[in-house]
Amino acid sequence: QVQLVESGGGLVQPGGSLRLSCAASGSIFSIYAMGWYRQAPGEQRELVARITSSGSTHYADSVKGRFTISRDNAKNTVYLQMNSLKPKDTAVYYCKATYGTSGYWGQGTQVNVTS
Prior knowledge:
This protein is an all-beta fold. Helix content is 0%, strand content 54%.
């Protein structure tokens, strides 16, 4: 089992940047595929970006070219660098660790993009 704690959310103006972090504990971090998801009010939770244990990445079309996911296995942490933020990026961002059929979620961090 793994415990996940997200941080780095906040209020930012359109065009600004934020970097989210997700710190993992309780298991061997490097074996997990890690993902960032988001959920806006009244919307379903959606995949934003994912990185496999080997470092392969996948992005939602809506964030390609603006967001970058990365991981530091030595620090048991996955990051989401978010640039050129738009109001539609406003949501609660969640981190998820996946291994086989097991999945673990963090508690989420709020991102508000507004002028």
